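Table S2 (text version). Query chain:
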Amino acid sequence: TGIARFFASITGNTAENKDTSSEKNTRTSTSSGASVSSQIKAQSSPEPRSFVKGVAPSGSVPPDWDENPDLSISTFSQLPSSTFGYNQHMIINDDFKEALRQILWQFRAPIRYAVAYGSGVFPQTASPSKVPSAIHPNPSPAISSMQGSRGKMIDFIFGVTFTQHWHSLNLQNHRDHYSAVGSLGSSLVSRVQDNWGAGVYFNPFVTVNGTLIKYGVVNLDTLCRDLSEWDTLYLAGRLHKPVKILRDDARVRLANQINLISAVRTALLLLPSTFTEQELYSTIAGISYLGDPRMALPAENQNKVANIIKHQLPNFRRLYAPLVENLPNVAFHDSRCNSTDWKDDPNTNITLVQDMDPKKRGNMVRRLPRAFRSKLYFRYQSKFQIPQPEFEKMMEDSNDQDPSRVKRQQGGVFEQKIANDNQKGLQEEVRKAIK
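Corresponding structure-token output:
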């Protein structure tokens, strides 16, 4: 069937699944239309929301898997379902993927989680000419073929377990990758990484396997915290966009799925009742740029987000369409979804509708990542002029950090007021909370 074929394209081939332990947090069932609000159901549609071909069924994924996620897991079998997170795995050219993996093998220090990202992996412009670029000293034929004349430095993020130990081993093998800070030893390098900025130590403009790369090293705990709580949004924002996972980790996969569903909820709060796929993905991709001062500089490409979406629409669809299908308050609402090949068509811009019921939107506010939600609450405490004692009581009642009590993350009057703010006002407060 069309759904079965689409399922195969979501999960990828057998070899891809085997060496990535991929996942799929997706949810489509013939009864899923019953969970959509009456506002959505009242609108005419050729089929119920389960008609969306290309979104694989969810299997046994619990509907509230993100209520109290266990980020202490260590194996893929502990994920909410056997196919949890497959949407995170992008399909790229096999030879190019192998060339990227060969770069990883040049590092003897253990890398638990690795992604390649950015315009060096996913083009943000039209297809390049086949004339090789001079940016890479001696790249593999696969990299030359994929990048052509638009040669770009390839960016990586490496997730590691023990920061100082990793840098100690890497300094022994690749001292030339480090700046003068490396001469002071792995202890100082790890302190710089863990205590400053977003917890990532970058070695840029280094050549590995004849390819110019930049790699950032991050502790897995730091990575999972940013993905699940948005304490800096530095790494979480990068993973809002398609990346190529080269080495996977169960805990990071779970944390990143929280990150992705949080990005969808944040975008829905900023969008009207009816919107398009491109508007959804542009809003998601733009979240991390809302507080980025570089976007105000003349040298920064103001069309950066638009270019990313334009040239990566099928990948964004692969990443987010299964999550949209898993939410009860939003639905694809377009007859073009009847076509089995709509997911691969970059010219198809599907229409979606969402439920604007204040209670449901308040619940979305309540389920925003903890660190980001806290900043947003303080912004609205000031905007609504809520007295401090009253505000502290509301925060205590909504505390979800007490392990002794498991409670559903339901929004109250405060969250509903936030969700009901006008689009411009909410976007401004979100921007200031991110900044």
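Notes on Table S2: The two ends are 47 Å apart (CA to CA). The first strand starts at residue 113 and ends at 117.
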